[in-house]
Write the structure tokens for this entry.
Amino acid sequence: MSRAPAAWTLLLMAAVLLGGEFAPYDPAASVGAPWTPPGDGSLLGTDDAGRDVLSRVLAGGRALTTTALAAALAAAVLGTAGGLAAGWAGGRADRLLSGLADLLLAVPFLLQAMVLAVALPAPAAVVAGTVCGGAPLGLRVIRDLTRQARGSGYVEAARGRGEPAAAILGREVLPSLAGAAAADLVLRFVLALQLAAAFGMLGLGPEPPAPDWGLMLRENLPGAGLNPVALVAPAAALAVLAVTAAVLAQSLAATRTPRPAKITKVEAVSRPVDAGPAVNGLDVDGLDVVDPLGRHIITGFALRAGPGEVVAITGPSGSGKTTALRAVLDLLGEGLQRSGGAMRWQGNDVPSGRAARRWRRVHVGLVDQDPVTTLDPLMTVGAAVLDGRREPRATARTMLTELGLDAGRLWSRRANRLSGGQAQRVALARALLTDPALLVLDEPTSGLDQGALDLVADAVERRRGDGRSITLVVSHDETFVARVADRIIDLTPPGASRPLPQPVPEHAAGPPPVADEVLAVRGLRLAHGPAALLGVEDLSLRRGELVAVTGPSGSGKSTLLRALAGLHAPACGDLGVLGRPAAWPVDGRGRGEVRAIQFVAQDPAGALNPAHRVATALTRPLCLLAGTTHAQARERVPELLRQVGLDPELATRRPGELSGGQRQRVALARALAAGPAVLLADEITAALDAASAAAILRLLASLRTGGLAVLLVTHDHSVAAGADCIMHVHDRTLVPQSPARTETDGRAR
């Protein structure tokens, strides 16, 4: 949010509330003849009773504004509280609160207002009218946003560390919706202001000679021909206050979350690169991007791609790959801006602002780094792929099929029920549907199994050499890049070593045969609704053990980890934690059991609360589960960040200021902060470059020597190769594959 609207609104509110102190005359006293035009003695002339118009305008907004503020606060608090309760509880509570809101909205607002104005004193009528007319709208908005937030990674992380519902709503959900809630408060203020002024104009407000803008409009309408300023001045004051507040509401609403397009990387400065000869396609030269403080984020970026080419951009996490491409497309996050450079598409300058949106709609297909956040969780897959376009459904279904998805089964499924790999391909199908001239893919293969990755590569290769389309690919997967790209632009900062082609996991010695069993699962059955998803007959982990889980996208691997973390209710099964029976729901586990099992989700974009700084995200589990004081937790934050390979200076940043790989490592640090016995890790290396992934694997190997057990979901065979045991999903059952060693205790996996 820009600070200018807030500053202007605060200044204007102060002027309205204190303006009466600077009135040149007593607002209720007659100083001349009625409706005298502006002159030396009276800057704005006089009104119907000969009172000074300027004095009455300066004093006439205080009571009206105070009443409007009280009414807005009441409506916003009730609407926000009701929306949080309805969105979180669901079921009967949701139906009751939403039904009450719909009932109030069904009654004409004007009828409500008039009845209240007759039955109650003017200030009370304004408050009641604003609550009845505004709170239901706020409830509806906050309810929908709360429902979305409830399924986010940061809320699940809070549930996974045993936070009660009230704490999650207050500490996680409400801060993430602060922009929307604040915008609703300001809009309720505008509604209350208009209502109070209308009551004054109709003679239902304050009695003369009280200074009131609404009353002034009523009193001075007959003399508009003699002194029009007496009528225009209060109307202008009302309009300026309402418009300023509305601009503030719009600015606040722009900050609400989740916000899929806000993915920026603000660490590294790129260097000029050899981008090849100029072509009649996309031509970027000398692109510079700066942050709000004027610091250069991207310097001298150059890129040239001709028709039929696939150009890949590589480099370590945080090197500016995503920021550079989003600058080209005029999609930079809030606070970042292009400060220099030329960008041309087919010989014409790439537009900015509203024109850029039209240009992207016609020419560009984009798959973001975190595609899960770009899909409306309440929208079906079919609607998401079509995206409001008039393409034939058969074409969209064919596109899904070509990417390895069962179009018939998934077409009517909501996006929030997709696995990460499925969501990745749905987003790609949406981008490919119109065969865009410029296709931009940001990490299109993260989290995909080999079969799905091959299908994505085939889709990119079909555009290669067609003499028309251009494809830009950002990827950490150098094998994929080598397969599909004609040219590679490397944004590795000068002096930094290039990452290895593949992360090389370090083989840790297996746990001793007598190691304690920290996790045991027997007879587990997982389902989504009535459909069976995955069965696990026997799964156990001992201290220091690493078990890898592999299988195709959508086979239930992530759901398995969520069930073990207490976030997904299984159909049946037994769970043991630290040698004792444990409840499946996290709410039924003791503090020790909650601390023992910590979960790192696959989606780095949704894993962290966008309203919280990194330090806040790390101190909460330290205080709640590790038993440290807040001061001690703050002191440990730099150590945790260094442990996962991050600069401690990132502690002051919010997730929107981090790269995808940085967010993933912060989520890992948050899980390790609790001091768990078992780490459930879902594709924690997929969003990382090879060097960072190798560092994380070395960290896990080090932690395993201290007794940490790891259950790791991965599609990367080189990562799985470092496990003590590999479990594979086959025919909806988790079965052993290539055990690394023979268990001396005879237990079967």
